[in-house]
Every structure is written in C-alpha cells, then in structure tokens.
Recover the amino acids of this structure.
C-alpha cells in the first residue's frame, strides 16, 4: 500500500514537471518565434527602405530647400509622386518620407501623402517628436528601426540615411512607417501556432492529470477494499472456500490449517469428490454430497452441520454455509464459509445430557411438579402430576393453570387458586397444606407440599414451581392414628378410673377400717394411678400436637380473673398439704375478659399452679399475676421455689425434659406438662416464657391476645 | 339384664341411673352413691338403660358415651325426644377427653359432664347434689 502511494506520488510529480516544461518550452518557443519574426520584419522593412533609398538620386534632394518654396518645384513633385508610389506598392507601408536637419531641427522634405490629405506633412514642416533613431541617422549615418509615438499615431519605422557619395554627407533620411498595430498583429499571427500548440499541450496535461488523479483514487479505493477483504478472509477463523461449479476447489483461506490441519495449498486444485475421500467423516459423506449438489444447482444454504476428519485424524464438527456467486446469471463460483463448531457441539451435547438428566429427574420424580410462568400458563407438568390430576401434560401445557386445574380447601371445598398467583407476585414460598385438587374425573385428592418462585439471574420472578403429592393416604393414616390414640387412651382410662374410684372407696372410713400400713398402700395405689391417668392424658395431648391436628379450640368469652380465682380454690387440697399460700398478686385488674378455650387455659394454669406448689418450700407463697395490656393479657405464676438452672431454661419447654433439680425433688413428673402448656398457649396465638434464678424461684408467664 | 339394683326404700332418696358398660365402675360409683344415700340403678348398655328409664324413672341419669350396642349419644337423643324423660337431668360420664364428643353431648341436652379418670367419687356426688338442688 505504501509503495503504491509513493508510485502515485512520483507519477504526479512527473506529470507536473512535464506540464511545467511544456509551458516553459511552449512560451520560450513563442517568444523565440516573436523575436525571430520581428527581426525578420525589421530586416525586411529596412531592406525595403534601403532599396528605396538606393533608387533615389541624392541630387533630387539637394535641389530642394526644405521650405514651402519647394512645393512648386518639379523635383519636389517628382519626389512626392515617387514616395506615393512606394507607399502604394509596399502593402504595409503607411507613410514614406524624406527628412532633413537644419539647425538641429528635423523637418520634412517630402512625404507620400497627397498634398490635400490632412495627415500630409508639407515641405519644411518641423518634426519635433522625431525619435532618437532618426536623429542618429543624421548624425551617425546609421540605419535603424524604431518604435515610437508621434502626432499621427504609433509606428514601427525604418530610417535609412541618403548619403551623397561624393561628399559622404547625409543629405536626408528616408523614413518608412508601418502601423504598430499592424506590425504587432502580424507578430501575434506568427506566434499563434506555437501558442496554440503549447496551450493545447498544457490543457492536455492538466486534463490528463485530473483524469489520472481520478483513476488513481478509484484504484486506491479498489486496492483498499481489496486489502480489507484480503484481511478479512485471511484472518477469519472460519474457512472461506471458493469452489468452481464443476467441483474444483479454487481457493481456501488460511484458517484451513487451523480447522482441518491441512495447508490450503494441499487442498486447492482438488475436486470435492477427492476431498470427500479424506476430509469428510464417512457417516456424513451423503450429507456433504447433498450440500454440494444443492450448491452446484445454484441454491443457497445455511448452517449445515457435519463432521470432518482433520489431518491428524480427529473427528470434528463444522458448520457449513454457502452462497452461489453469479456472473451474467450463470453460476461462477460457490462461496462457502466453514466454521469449526466442535467445542460448541461438545458443550451442547454435554448440556443436552444435563438437560435430559434434569428432565428425567423432574419428569420422573415421585412428587408432582407443575411449573407456571408469569402469564399463569403451565409450562411443565410431570408424570406424577399427570397421575395425580388425571390430566395429560399435553392437555394442560400452554394453558392457563386455573382454566384446567382447580384447587379447593379441604375444610369447606371453596376454590383456592390464588396461592399460585400470590407466589408469582410476591415471590414468597408457601406451604401447601389442607388443599385438594379436583381431578379430571371430578374426584378430589388431598395434596400437600409447597409452591416456590423461580427467579432468573437478575432475580426477577419468571415462573413458579408447584410441588405436590397425593396425601390422601397420609390423611387417612393421620385420622386413624388420631382415632387410635383417642380410643387407646379411652380404653386405658376406663380401668384406671376403676382403680381410682375403688382406691378412693377403700380409703373411706365407712368401707372398713384399714390399718395404717394398708391405708398407706392404698394411698400409694391411688397416687400411682393418678400419675398414670395424667400420663395417658398428656400423651393424648402430645399425640394431638404431633399429628399437627393441634387442638380443636372451643373459644368462649370468659373472665380470666374469675377463672384464676376458681382454680386457686380448686388447688386448696394441694396447697393445704404443703402449707403454701396460693394467691393473687397485687395490681390484679377487676376483670379481664378474653376469648379462648376455657378448658385448655384451665389446664395450663393448673399445670403452672401444680408445678409452683410442688417445687416451693413449705410455708411459702405462690403469687398469680394478671396484667392487661393494649392487645394482650399476661398471666404470671411466681414461686419462691427451686427455680430452673440458667443453662436449662432454654430446654424447659421441651418434650420429656426435666430440670436436674426438679427431678431430684419430685421423681413423678413426666416432663410433658410445660410442653403441652406452651403448645396450648401457642395455639391461641400467645406466648409462654419464664424468668428464673436457681434456688430463688421461678416466674412462668403466658400471654393471650385480646381481640377487640 | 338388670343387675346391681338396690332400692332405697325411704324417700326422699333421689334415684340415680348409671348407664355404663364397665361393671367395675358401676360397682364403685354405685357403692359410693348408696353410701351417700342415693337410690342407685344401673344398666350395662344404652338399650337396657332406656328400657329401665320407662319403668323406673330416675331423678338423674349418669351416661357413658362409648358403649357397645347403643352409644350414649343415641340414648341421649331418645331421652330428650320422649316427653316423660326429656326433663331428667343427664350428666355425661366419659373418658373421652374434654373434646368435641363432650361438646356434642352438651349440645344434645346434657347438663354437665365429667371426665371419669380426672374426677373422684366425691366430686361426682357434689355435682349430682348441685344439679338435684336446682
């Protein structure tokens, strides 16, 4: 590229130089022509003048006086006639005349002009404006040519002195005038040719230069664009192939080496049939043949994939696109672009395998999976979903989920489709519980699990996945389990009640006197039986908590102060035994109505009272507090007992957990009371906690919301 | 079918009928009630109980809920539907929890209930006295 620019610059300079030389030579030649012609004209004029002078006898002049007296002289008239005839013969001669000099002043002897002409100079007329050349002709007897201006105009004149041969003196000077205009016109005429030639030559060169510049620019542009294409082709990672319609490979870009391992030189000139033999993977040869058939019939083709064999023998995937290049409507070349897509292909295969795995997993997983997009359309419906719902994936895919599927609440059968919409809009994960799905056949199945949002890389929700399973059997088992526990506890309670009542009867004085030891035994039977009854009752509660059925609450409005008072009274037997005062604390509100299950709350309170009484030192006071807050009431049971060791306070509400110090004091506790109490309070929407210091006492609190 | 019937000859000994399928409980509660001066009659299942009520109208009925043949709820329904028995106060005596069964029984017209395993005999007597006094 640099070389070509330099070359073009050289050409340009040469052209300018030639043009310049032409101008110089042209004008030089013109000037030379001018000078030469002028010299020739001058010589010719001078010669003519000399010829005239030679034919004049000086005596003709010497007889003249150079005054008006001459006018009538025959020699004057003769001379004048002679001059007139000279002038008429000489085409370009305007005036011809003889002048003389007297007292330093030049005057006319005679001229060629008729006497009556206004421009005639009569004999003796002084010629003041006479040029120096004329004067010199007198003084030095020299012939000369002069260019000058006088009263008659601008002239080129030849001055030739007329010398008396005997005396050698200048008698007169002959002048012959040619109009300067005519003179110059003639010269210009003479110079016209070289001037025209020069101008034409210069014009030619300028034209050529402009034309040349244009051509150079076009050439440079072509060169640039060629350069670009060459760079593109040579640096392309794709192999660019030009193939003649008869199948001969005409060109292969250098990428051939990288893609196929073959140098383009090794392949160019070979036919596609030959190439097929060693470069195309044998299972794909048919495909390749078809590509060439299509290409040679003038069709265009994109993105054909096949495998090739590299020089090293590796099998590689390539992507082939081609287009026919036409010339005058005839297929000239097939331009192909072959891309190495081996890596991509391998990655795709791997990805496909992964996708297949994931698909197999999602489609084959035991739980039903339903994916709903932002437009609420079902985009995935796996086999388990098909089985549970009775719909096929084909039937539901692409449809809005609520057009096909109907979810209802287990308890009242009301339609609940909004949980999916909720997750789609809020992005919140939800548990599915106590829901039923209406099957295609109209039957309903209990389902459970979850619905969760699916987000893209930017964190936007794009869809949501509903995962569910048929829990009809679980529900049945739950129900059976619960019924079993109820029944079992009922069955256990009946004999326990028998023992309880009979022991009670035995202890009555009327039934018969028992000795002290017998009485003690019966009392032990009674208390052991009480523990068993408590255990059965607690286990029933625990079973309810565990099965998730919790408790069915029978809420009524009641006054908490009243309930506390009643229960304090109920505990009289217990408190009396241990000489403990169970009482209200100060600041008790006059009334505190709450909506709750009275039985359950009683159970909780009794549990707290029993614990407080059991673990308090004899003679101490247990105080029951009640505080009314804006939206809740807080009940506290405060004792001065053994307290709960700090490290065990976290675990005190755990099932079967008993604090070390409590187990020492009372071996009969089953570790379920506080667990059940807390669960009961929580079912009410309240909380339970404690504050305690070992050996100083414990205060158990629970809160219940007051719904206004 | 009727057993353990002891008549208290002297009036005003209120007559209490216990319908319960467990003979041990009948024996224990019967002993206590007689001891406390009540006239006590009992039946081991609902049907027998209802027959007994027709011939021997009690002042109060203690009714177990879960029994073979005829359960407590049916007995209660029958009692409340018949003109001459509907005013007899019925206390449910059950070992089912305080739960929905008890609520159902109360809704059917029982005046009160006792969870057998959690009350002692003394408490039952107190309860009977309370309702008889009303």
């Amino acid at each position: 590229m640099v070389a070509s620019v330099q070359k073009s610059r050289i050409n340009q300079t040469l052209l300018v130089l030639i043009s310049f030389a032409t101008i110089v030579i042209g004008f030089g030649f013109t000037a030379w022509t001018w000078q030469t012609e002028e010299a020739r004209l001058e010589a010719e004029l001078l010669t003519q003048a000399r010829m005239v002078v030679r034919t004049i006898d000086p005596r003709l002049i010497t007889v003249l006086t150079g005054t008006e007296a001459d006018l009538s002289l025959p020699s004057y008239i003769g001379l004048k006639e002679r001059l007139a005839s000279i002038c008429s013969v000489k085409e370009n001669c305007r005036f011809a005349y003889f002048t003389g000099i007297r007292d330093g002043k030049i005057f006319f002897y005679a001229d060629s002009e008729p006497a009556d002409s206004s421009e005639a100079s009569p004999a003796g007329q002084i010629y003041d404006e006479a040029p120096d050349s004329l004067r010199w002709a007198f003084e030095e007897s020299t012939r000369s040519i002069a260019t000058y201006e006088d009263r008659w105009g601008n002239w080129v004149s030849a001055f030739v002195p007329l010398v008396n041969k005997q005396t050698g003196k200048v008698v007169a000077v002959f002048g012959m005038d040619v109009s300067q205009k005519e003179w110059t016109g003639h010269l210009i005429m003479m110079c016209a040719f070289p001037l025209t030639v020069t101008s034409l030559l210069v014009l030619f060169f300028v034209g050529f230069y402009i034309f040349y510049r244009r051509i150079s620019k076009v050439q440079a542009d072509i060169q640039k664009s060629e350069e670009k294409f060459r760079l593109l082709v040579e640096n392309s990672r794709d192999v660019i192939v030009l193939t003649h319609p008869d199948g001969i490979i005409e060109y292969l870009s250098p990428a051939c080496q990288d893609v196929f391992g073959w140098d383009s030189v090794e392949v160019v000139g070979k036919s596609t049939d030959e190439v097929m033999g060693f470069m195309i993977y044998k299972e794909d040869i048919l495909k390749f043949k078809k590509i060439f058939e299509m290409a040679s019939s003038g069709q265009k083709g994109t993105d054909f994939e096949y495998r090739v064999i590299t020089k090293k023998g590796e099998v590689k995937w390539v992507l082939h696109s081609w287009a026919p290049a036409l010339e005058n409507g005839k297929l000239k070349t097939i331009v192909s672009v072959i891309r190495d897509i081996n890596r991509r292909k391998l990655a795709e295969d791997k990805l496909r395998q992964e996708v297949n795995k994931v698909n197999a997993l999602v489609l084959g997983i035991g739980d039903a999976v339903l994916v709903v997009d932002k437009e609420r359309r079902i985009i995935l419906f796996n086999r388990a979903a098909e089985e549970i719902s009775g719909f096929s994936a084909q039937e539901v895919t692409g449809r809005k989920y609520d057009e096909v599927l109907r979810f209802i609440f287990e308890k009242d059968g009301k339609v609940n489709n909004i949980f999916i919409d909720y997750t789609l809009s809020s992005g919140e994960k939800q548990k599915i519980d106590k829901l039923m799905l209406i099957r295609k056949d109209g039957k309903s199945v209990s389902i459970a699990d979850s619905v969760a949002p699916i987000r893209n890389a930017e964190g936007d929700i794009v869809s949501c996945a509903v995962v569910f399973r048929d829990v009809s059997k679980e529900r049945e088992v739950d129900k059976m389990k619960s019924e079993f526990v109820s029944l079992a506890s009922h069955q256990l309670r009946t004999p326990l009640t028998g023992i309880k009542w009979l022991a009670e009867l035995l202890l009555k004085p009327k039934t018969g006197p028992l000795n002290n030891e017998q009485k003690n035994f019966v009392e032990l039977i009674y208390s052991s039986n009480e523990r068993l009854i408590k255990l059965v009752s607690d286990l029933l509660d625990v079973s309810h908590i565990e099965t998730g059925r919790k408790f069915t609450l029978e809420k009524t409005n009641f006054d908490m102060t009243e309930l506390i008072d009643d229960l304090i009274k109920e505990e009289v037997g217990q408190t009396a035994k241990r000489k403990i005062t169970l009482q209200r604390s100060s600041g008790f509100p006059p009334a505190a109505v709450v909506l709750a299950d009275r039985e359950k709350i009683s159970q909780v309170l009794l549990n707290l009272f029993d614990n407080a009484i059991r673990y308090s030192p004899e003679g101490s006071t247990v105080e029951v507090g009640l505080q009314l807050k804006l939206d809740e009431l807080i009940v506290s049971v405060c004792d001065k007992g053994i307290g709960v060791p700090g490290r065990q306070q976290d675990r005190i509400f755990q099932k079967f957990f008993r604090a070390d110090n409590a187990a020492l004091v009372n071996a009969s506790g089953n570790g379920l009371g506080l667990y059940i109490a807390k669960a009961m309070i929580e079912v009410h929407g309240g909380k339970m906690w404690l504050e305690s210091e070992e050996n100083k006492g414990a205060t158990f609190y629970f809160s219940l919301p007051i719904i206004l | 079918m009727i057993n353990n019937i002891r008549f208290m000859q002297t009036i005003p000994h209120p007559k209490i009928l216990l319908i319960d399928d467990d003979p041990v409980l009948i024996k224990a509660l019967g002993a206590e009630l007689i001891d406390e001066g009540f006239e006590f009659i009992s039946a081991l299942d609902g049907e027998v109980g209802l027959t007994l009520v027709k011939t021997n109208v009690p002042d109060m009925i203690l009714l177990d809920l879960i029994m073979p043949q005829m359960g407590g709820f049916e007995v209660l329904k029958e009692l409340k539907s018949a003109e001459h028995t509907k005013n007899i106060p019925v206390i449910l005596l059950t070992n089912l929890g305080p739960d929905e069964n008890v609520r159902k029984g109360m809704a059917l017209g029982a005046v009160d209930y006792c969870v057998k395993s959690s009350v002692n005999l003394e408490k039952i007597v107190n309860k009977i006295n309370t309702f008889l006094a009303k």
